[in-house]
User: Which sequence fits this backbone?
């Protein structure tokens, strides 16, 4: 479906829970975080109904996220439900990787092939400092098992944090893309208050990397906003950058977000959400829900400035990252 700014909206990020098994210091709101009561979280049946309706509007690419999606029971049944729907072009999962290893066989059987794993450092002590949990080994073994199981692509998302992982860690992630066929993406930190002071820009990191290595620019299919993607001779994988601050990509934004409690959000920078859960639970017909989705799409802001700009109060865990 095309919106009023001629953007093709075809991608929905679905948060299945606001719970997470990590406590990354930068991924929280300034307000005390209250978990959504269980009865307010959409059931898998409700999510599947919305996915079916979204498909009828041409939204055919889906990413499952959270919170940490793998803390929700039987996630593979939702994945299987989505992959079985006619017209679905792509289903992927974003995870912190802690519970990945044990879930891989079920996820693969459910039809999942694409994985994004969030990992900000390859240093065990820093991992503990960032996430509050000593779990680096679990994430690394999850990555290796995913590659052995044939998941492709396996992308690793690294949020750049000044003074924390903007030095040697960058080289270590580049080395990882030499030894494993993973696609590392360095991401600019978005300014939710607990993250203040940690921002590093992508151009800054790029400049450092360009001084050290000879880069070959490549196209990574389905790379979304990570338009600059590179390989260094001899690399099994690749690396790239996502720079929401340095290179805004509102003009090509193709996405909607569904929160775990059934609110549709058309822009990360807008506080406005559209309550689909109430409609679902009032047992209204498909037409009425479709109308609500179309209204949301019709009001999708043209840019982050239109949406009210930066300075959100809530972190991504609440919004669905
Ligand atoms: N738990 C899953 C995971 O770790 O991938 C999915 C949800 S998590 C909120 C999604 C991603 O958002 C993670 O890569 C996390 O690092 C990133 N994130 C959280 N807060 C952020 C911020 N302020 N700026 C940029 N990325 C952020």
Assistant:
């Amino acid at each position: 479906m095309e919106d009023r700014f001629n953007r093709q909206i075809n991608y929905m990020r679905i948060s299945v829970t606001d719970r997470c098994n990590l406590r990354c210091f930068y991924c929280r709101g300034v307000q005390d975080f209250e978990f959504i009561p269980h009865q307010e979280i959409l059931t898998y049946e409700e999510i599947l109904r919305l996915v079916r309706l979204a498909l009828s509007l041409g939204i055919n690419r889906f990413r499952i996220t959270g919170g940490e999606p793998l803390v929700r029971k039987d996630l593979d049944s939702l994945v299987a439900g989505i992959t079985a729907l006619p017209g679905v072009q792509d289903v992927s999962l974003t995870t912190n990787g802690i519970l990945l290893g044990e879930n891989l066989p079920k996820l693969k059987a459910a039809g999942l092939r694409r994985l994004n794993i969030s990992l900000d450092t390859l240093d065990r002590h820093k991992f503990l400092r960032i996430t509050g949990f000593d779990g680096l080994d679990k994430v690394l073994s999850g990555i290796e098992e995913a590659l052995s199981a044939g998941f492709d692509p396996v992308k690793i998302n690294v949020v750049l944090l000044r003074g924390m992982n903007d030095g040697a860690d960058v080289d270590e992630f580049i080395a990882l893309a030499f030894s494993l066929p993973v696609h590392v993406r360095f991401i600019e930190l978005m300014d939710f208050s607990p993250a203040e002071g940690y921002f590093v820009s992508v151009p800054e990191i790029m400049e450092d990397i360009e001084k050290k290595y000879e880069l070959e620019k490549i196209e990574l299919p389905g790379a979304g906003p990570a338009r600059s993607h590179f390989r260094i001779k001899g690399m099994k994988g690749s690396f790239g950058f996502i720079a929401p601050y340095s290179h805004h990509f509102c003009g090509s934004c193709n996405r909607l977000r569904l929160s775990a409690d059934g609110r549709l959000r058309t822009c990360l920078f807008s506080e406005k959400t559209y309550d689909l859960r109430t409609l679902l639970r009032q047992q209204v017909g498909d037409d009425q829900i479709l109308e609500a989705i179309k209204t949301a799409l019709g009001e999708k802001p043209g840019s982050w400035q239109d949406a009210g700009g930066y300075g959100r109060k809530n972190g991504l865990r609440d919004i669905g990252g």
